[in-house]
Each structure stands twice: as structure tokens, then as C-alpha cells.
Amino acid sequence: MNNCLFCKIIAGDIPSTKVYEDESVLAFRDIAPMAPTHILVIPKTHIGSVAEISAENSAVVAHIFEVIPQIAKAEGLENGYRVVSNCGDDAGQSVHHLHFHILGGKKLSLEMA
Ligand code: AMP
Asked: What is the pLDDT confidence band of residue 1, given thresholds at 50, 70 and 90?
């Protein structure tokens, strides 16, 4: 996608602090961390949001959920962490490329809405 910020990060046109990469997934540190550890995990193929996950593209989403525990372990999040995906305007999604936030490194608030 031409104008997608995260596609530009995948292409290397915009720098990021990578913590994990393979053929289908990239993970990098959030530029405005909301917790001591705040990582974004994204598919390299453009999927707009959770609302666009389908039988045709869900294999990469399953793979993301295999990668997330590996990243959490590497980051020392043995005390726990939160995985969040904001979907659409009401959820405050600001980048329209599917991403999963990994938040941890402190006791997180239970407030969800
Ligand atoms: P969301 O609001 O759920 O769509 O999350 C988008 C996230 O992308 C926010 O937490 C932003 O801080 C983060 N973000 C925006 N631009 C960048 C960037 N260039 N590098 C890393 N994270 C970014």
C-alpha cells in the first residue's frame, strides 16, 4: 500500500527499532511507548485491521501469535503482558495496517474503555 506508514517501515523507507523479523512478520518498538516495553507486531502483507482478517490471510495472524510469546520471552516479560489490537475509529486505530501491541514491563491498568 503506497501510503501506509507500516508498509514504508517494512520496506525500510522509514526507520524502526526492530526486535524481530522473519519472512512474513516484523516487530519493532512503538515510537510513543505506553509501557516500559511496547512493541508492535505486524504482518508484512498489508491487512488493514482485524476486520480484514479472513480464511485467505489468517495464516500470518496465527504466525504472529506464535511469534508474540517468543518476543515476550526475549524481552523478559515473564511476569505477564498485554496484547492489544485497535480495530477501527471507535477503538482509536491510528495506523490502518494490522498490528498487535505487546505491552508490559509494569503492572498494567485493568481499564479497558
Ligand atoms: P494504533 O493507535 O492502535 O493504530 O497504534 C498505532 C501505533 O503506532 C501507536 O502506538 C503509535 O505510537 C505507533 N507509531 C506510529 N508511528 C510509528 C513509527 N514511525 N514507529 C513506531 N511506532 C509508530
From this structure: low
CB of 28 closer than 8 Å to CB of 18: yes
Beta strands 100-104 and 25-29 are unpaired
Protein residue closest via CA to atom 20 of ligand 1: 31
Candidate of 6, 14, 31, 37 to mutate for ligand 1, largest count of ligand atoms within 8 Å of Cβ: 31
Pocket around ligand 1 at a 6 A CB cut-off: 5, 14, 16, 28, 30-32, 40, 86, 92-95
pTM: 0.97
Question: For the segment 21-61, what is each residue's pLDDT rounded down to a tens digit?
Answer: 999 999 999 999 999 999 999 999 999 999 999 999 999 99
Tell me whether residue 94 is exposed, middle or buried, using C-beta atoms within 10 angstroms of its C-beta: 0 to 12, 13 to 18, 19 or more: exposed
Catalytic residue numbers, as ranges: 99
